[in-house]
Amino acid sequence: MVKTKATKATTTKPRSATKPVKKKAPVRKKGKKKEPKEMPAWCKYLFGVLVVVVFVSAFYFFFIRPYSYRWKPCYGLKGYGVCMPAGFKVHGIDVSHYQGAINWDMLKKTRQGNFPVEFIFMKATEGGDFSDNKFVTNFNSAKTHGFIRGAYHFYNPKTDANKQADFFIRSVKLEPGDLPPVLDIEKKGKDIPKLQNDLKIWLKRVEAHYGVKPIIYASYKFKTRYLNDDFFNAYPYWIAHYYVDSVRYEGEWKFWQHTDVGTLPGIEEKVDLNVFNGSLSEMKELLIPRKD
Hints:
Elements (H helix, E strand, L loop, with lengths): L40 H24 L13 E2 L2 E2 L6 E6 L8 H5 L8 E10 L3 E2 L3 H10 L3 E7 L6 H11 L10 E3 L7 H19 L4 E5 H7 L3 H4 L3 E4 L14 E8 L8 E6 L3 H5 L8
Parallel strand pairs: 3-4, 4-6, 6-7, 7-8, 8-9, 9-10
Antiparallel strand pairs: 1-2, 3-11, 4-5, 10-11
């Protein structure tokens, strides 16, 4: 007999052994999103009013209040486009290259007005190497036209004090009858003790050269905060304080720069106006004396 190959028996997996079919989870119907409640009209109105109030207050505080004195009614005498401080007889100005070319013949006519200009301070130097390009012309012209003249140095805290003092001394040849030299200090720098020490160096060096105590020019806040001790108080003080009826500084002072918007004949740009705290004869006592 012929033997045949036995065939493999085929087996089928029982239905129970197959993977169970996952049932889909029932889809939940999404509910409607709640819309945000609209702000009531009165809230919108109140918010708008608050925004306007804050804006107006900030604008007034930063831009109007510091200069509000300009628009105050003048109950005293008006001169040079501003309300002049009452009770002062000796008036002056200070100028620099910012005022441009000055017509000195026209400016001299103020000597016959209600507020005759008696003295003029002029910017001479700044830092250790900047010369005002109008100083020589202004300084000579002031003397020629009969004004009492003075020169000031704008101090730079970043420059060596001795270098600044020597630069001023080389640049300014003060004569008997001139006002004492002026130290204009407006920038404090980062190190106040160093600034104070450097200013003392400048003052002592310049005082030794000219033989008179220099004048310190600073705002009353700057003077009170940083230069309020026996050393600095021994020097004549020129206070810068604008748009007020009277000086707030409680210490002794000689000159007051009371506005920076004066208008004078012969000068196209606005000018700083000053008064001396005393009579003309008292101011002349400050001048560089004649050497016998």
